[in-house]
Q: What sequence folds into this?
């Protein structure tokens, strides 16, 4: 596995922290922490792009943020779960796995040629 | 006016993505400004659009268009893989992100 994927996981994880922060921040020092987390998060995002295609990394970053916020709404902020939400979440997970597999496949072809 | 802000936010997101690509290749001040400045302004305009549009809808359109544009730009200008399966999976992700945000 490309070590870039570790940075993808890190950037997605930190993204969830600042999104959660956006929802619960109430004073100035909360925002100071959030902005620090965003900076670290974006640094990991750039590190991930050093060894992986930027389009892939960014799409996964957006997907993780979207699924993460939807899950937070449901579990932490007591929003509702609907069939439509479940459907689109499943679709996202499927898309990300397919994308990762296709990029891995392209790399193997490159290595073979 | 709200949709104009969404449009501006998407444009700056694209600036940020180009900055992301450049910054990951070479860490220079110019690239860092493109990267952080682009995303920073994108968030400002996105926030402004929330004043007159429904948050979930505005956010869905913004992130969907931005993600699609990020992929296209990297394929066209930075020579990333244009394989069919890659394009199909990216379309699935963009539809999924936009759809999930729209129904949330």
A:
């Amino acid at each position: 596995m490309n070590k870039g994927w570790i940075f993808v996981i890190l950037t997605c994880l930190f993204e969830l922290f600042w999104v959660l922060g956006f929802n619960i921040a109430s004073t100035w020092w909360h925002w100071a922490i959030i902005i620090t987390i965003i900076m670290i998060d974006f640094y990991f995002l750039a590190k991930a792009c050093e060894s992986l295609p930027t389009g892939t990394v960014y799409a996964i970053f957006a997907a993780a943020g979207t699924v993460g916020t939807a899950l937070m709404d449901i579990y932490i902020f007591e929003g509702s779960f609907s069939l439509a939400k479940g459907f689109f979440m499943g679709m996202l997970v499927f898309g990300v796995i397919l994308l990762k597999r296709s990029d891995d496949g392209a790399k193997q072809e490159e290595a073979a040629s | 006016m709200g949709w104009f802000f969404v449009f501006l936010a998407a444009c700056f997101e694209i600036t940020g993505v180009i900055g992301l690509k450049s910054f990951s290749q070479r860490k220079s001040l110019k690239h860092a400004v493109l990267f952080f400045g682009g995303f920073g302004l994108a968030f400002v305009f996105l926030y402004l659009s929330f004043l007159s549009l429904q948050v979930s809808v505005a956010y869905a359109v913004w992130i969907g268009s931005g993600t699609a544009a990020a992929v296209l730009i990297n394929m066209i200008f930075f020579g990333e893989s244009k394989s069919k399966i890659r394009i199909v999976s990216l379309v699935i992700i963009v539809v999924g992100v936009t759809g999930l945000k729209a129904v949330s």
Observations:
- Residues 83-112 of chain A form the longest helix (30 residues).
- Chain A has one domain: 3-112.
- The interface with chain B takes residues 39, 42, 45-50, 53-56, 58-60, 62-63, 65-67, 69-70, 73, 79, 82, 84-85, 87-89, 91-92, 94-96, 98-99, 101-103, 105-106 of chain A (CB under 8 Å).
- Residues 12 and 62 of chain A are 9 Å apart (CA to CA).
